[in-house]
Amino acid sequence: xxxxxxxxxxxxxxxxxxxxINCTYTATGYPSLFWYVQxxxxxxxxxxxxxxxxxxxxxxxxxxxxxxETTSFHLEKGSVQVSDSxxxxxxxxxxxxxxxxxxxxxxxxxxx
Amino acid sequence: GAVVSQHPSRVIxxxxxxxxxxxxxxxxxxxxxxxxRQFPKQSLMLMATSxxxxxxxxxxxxxxxxxxxxxxxxxxxxxxxxxxxxxxSSFYICSARLAGKGRQPQHFGDGTRLSIL
Lengths: 112, 117
Fold this sequence. Notes:
Order of helices and strands of chain A: EEEEEEEEEEEE
Number of strands of chain A: 12
Mean pLDDT of chain A: 92
Number of strands of chain B: 11
Distance between the termini of chain A: 41 Å
Distance between the termini of chain B: 37 Å
Helix content of chain B: under 10%
Oligomer: heterodimer
Mean pLDDT of chain B: 90
Shape of chain A: globular
Order of helices and strands of chain B: EEEEEEEEEEE
Low-confidence stretches of chain B: none
Radius of gyration of chain B: 14 Å
């Protein structure tokens, strides 16, 4: 079945540091890939997505590229801010019912 | 756009009470809504897929008589936790997917924190 493996946290970085959160997946067919962010006490917000190989999703300075050859969708940001502190979930959807399969989440804390 | 409203945001009840959680898509039509459960510091577990006008599809291990789902319109799905007990305490999150061709992303509500005493 489908699965998502993402980098375990927690991750603590200083403000303006570079961020990479690794995500790899296993899926049949050609899944769509997503990164969601969850701020404390809230639901999930879609951060970015990519629907086919070599697509790059980007939003709020975050980027991720759909790499079919390595089955990866790593999340990157060049300079993080305190406001980026949250839990980040990598996810995929495939098949007709479009159910989402989530990774375990990575808690990111940015210190000033 | 694509706002999903979930209500209530927090509920505290005595054991044995039934609790209803509403999930509304405010500015779009959603033929499919999803209900998730999230335990502290863990990922989201899909409980069921709710399709407008038909019965919900439950994931393995989820009791359909315990977690009643109704999706009566294109903008509203409800989850009722019947005769709730302390082990049902959790964070419940709904999502809605836009109706339309192609793969549409899911948009999530802010979640409901359920505490059963």
